Structure formats: structure tokens, C-alpha cells
Amino acid sequence: MSKGTEKSGVAGRFGARYGVIARNRTKVIETSQRRNHECPVCHHAAVRRMSLGVWGCRRCGAKYTAGAYSPDVREIVTKIE
User: Fold this and answer.
1) Which pTM does this prediction carry?
2) What one-character DSSP code corresponds to residue 52?
3) Of all helices (H) and strands (E), which one includes residue 33?
4) Rounded to a whole number, what is the distance in angstroms from the first to the last CA of the chain?
5) In whole angstroms, how far apart are CA 5 and each of 9, 10, 14, 30, 36?
């Protein structure tokens, strides 16, 4: 996978295609999606996206469903045991 450039970031893999607005929106969504988020159970920054809408803490093992691109929703929909 290409690493892109400093300016375009993760959307650098698209090159000159799809327009600047679409690439910038993709960059914002994917960088926030791929960073570590705070776990609602153990409060450590160890939550990663496992699949679409499913988030899991790598520290305490808690799995839950939330948004597709971000786990930061007002309340957790379902906790998966």
C-alpha cells in the first residue's frame, strides 16, 4: 500500500483522480477512523475498528457497536460479549 504524501496523507493513493473535495473528505474520515479511541469501559486509548460498526478495545477486550467510521456516539448501542 502506498504511503501517500505529507500533504495528501492517506488519500494520496488516489493520485489526481476523483477531485480534491472527495479526497479531502476521505482523508479526514480515514485518519480519524484509524487512530486509537478511548474505551468506554477501561478509559484507555486502545479502541480500534474491527469491522464496519464494530469496535474493540485491545486492552480490556471489550467489543461494542457504534458508528461506522467513529465510535464517538452519545451512547453505546450494543455491547457484544
Assistant:
1) 0.74
2) T
3) helix 20-34
4) 34
5) 5, 8, 11, 15, 22
Distance CA 63, CA 78 (A): 9
Question: Which amino acid is located at 57 in the chain?
Answer: C
Measure Cα distances from 76 to 30, 32, 34 in Å: 21, 18, 19
Residue 53 grid coordinates: 460498526
The candidate with the shortest Cα–Cα distance to 13, out of 27, 31, 32, is 27
Residue 19, all three cell numbers: 477531485
Give per-residue pLDDT as tens, 29-44. Answer: 998 899 999 998 899 9
Strand (E) positions, the chain? 37-38, 45-51, 54-57, 63-65, 78-80
**77 has a pLDDT exceeding 60:** no
Rounded distance between C-alpha atoms, residue 81 and residue 61, angstroms: 9
Q: Which residues pair with 21 in a beta bridge?
A: none
Grid cell listed for 16: 489526481
